[in-house]
């Protein structure tokens, strides 16, 4: 299965690894986009005006209420069709949107709603005395966010963000329904061609497990760095 030494390997190992690479690209892009949306959304819900808070609340409520598969189908097909209709209305030709870009945008939009709530909760966990002291010193909002808010909220946000990253890696499998060549779709194609369903889906499960274990190792190191100088979770108990 994993005969990768030949330039044209007869097995499906190379295809599975390429599918894994595609899944990781989408996961990284979607997580980054979701983090950006979540940061804006969290600040909007906490410090924005009434209209901004209402828009952010509607966004997070709808996205978290509708099943992710339905959102993916809606955004992938309806979203790309809407973009092309707008281009045609402006006198431009229709464009073929890359499956990679579409997958990142769709999952990033979904991730953003959950990241908004994770970051909002982390910001609210910061002792208000620190924020008030920064304001009393006349610290500008951007500087206060860089020096006070982000360092103080990071230890509280990391567990939730770590969970969102692991969800992002697994949610890439949902893109198989729209025909994007990620790990799950490639696995299904390989199993359907060879009829070795057990072998290929076990291989895919092992690859997903390897991503999770490696991610947990890295995230544990990051959390340890973010909590430096703070009591450990065991000590806090």
CATH architecture identity: Orthogonal Bundle
Shape: flat
**Percent in strands:** under 5%
CATH topology: MetI-like fold
Radius of gyration: 21 Å
Query: What proportion of the residues is helical, as a percent range?
Result: over 70%
By DSSP, the count of extended strands is 0
Family: Belongs to the binding-protein-dependent transport system permease family. HisMQ subfamily.
Main location: membrane
Organism: Phyllobacterium myrsinacearum
Transmembrane segments: 20-44, 56-77, 97-115, 196-219
Any overview of this molecule?
The chain is flat and about 70 Å long. The termini are far apart. It has helices spanning 13-47, 50-65, 68-89, 99-124, 128-136, 141-171, 183-194, 197-226, 233-236. It has a single domain (16-236), classed as MetI-like fold (Orthogonal Bundle). With 237 residues, the protein is mainly α. The model is unreliable at 1-10 (pLDDT under 50).
Layout of secondary structure:
Layout: H1 13-47, H2 50-65, H3 68-89, H4 99-124, H5 128-136, H6 141-171, H7 183-194, H8 197-226, H9 233-236
In short:
It is a multi-pass membrane protein. Belongs to the binding-protein-dependent transport system permease family. HisMQ subfamily. The chain is mainly α.
